[in-house]
Structures are given as C-alpha cells and as structure tokens.
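Below is how a single chain appears once it has passed through the pipeline. First comes the sequence as given, then the structure the pipeline wrote out for it. We keep one example in the README because the format questions we get most often are answered faster by looking than by reading.
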Amino acid sequence: MASSRLVVDAIQRRCADIEPRFDSYRNELLTAVVEILSRERGHRVSPTNVQQKVQDHIEVLGDRIWRRAAQAL
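Resulting structure:
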C-alpha cells in the first residue's frame, strides 16, 4: 500500500508540472493515470485483456481532452 501511495504522489507531482489545456485538466489526467494503474494491478490478480481496456481508456481521455481544449479556445 505504501508503494502505491508513493507512485500516486510521484504522478501527482508530474501532473502539477503539466501545462493545463482547460479547467480541471490536471485532475482529469491524474484520474485517468490512476485508473490505468488500477487496471494494471487488477490484471496481475485476474488476467484479462488489459491492453485493450487501457487503450479504450486512453482513447476516451484523448477525445475528452481534444473537445475540452477546443472549447477553451
């Protein structure tokens, strides 16, 4: 559990350094990364097609970022 917290803390620091493209951009990015890490952890316990699930998640996030960034212009 402590190592998971260290990973999340490191990701939070890196997300804070990213230039936001819209309001709540950093929070959405952090949430997406944490969800992907959770899927990866679950994959170790119960093997599934994690690669496809992660790819689907990234595509949804990319679409959301593109739409929100376009709205911010």
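The radius of gyration is 14 Å.

See the next section for the split statistics.
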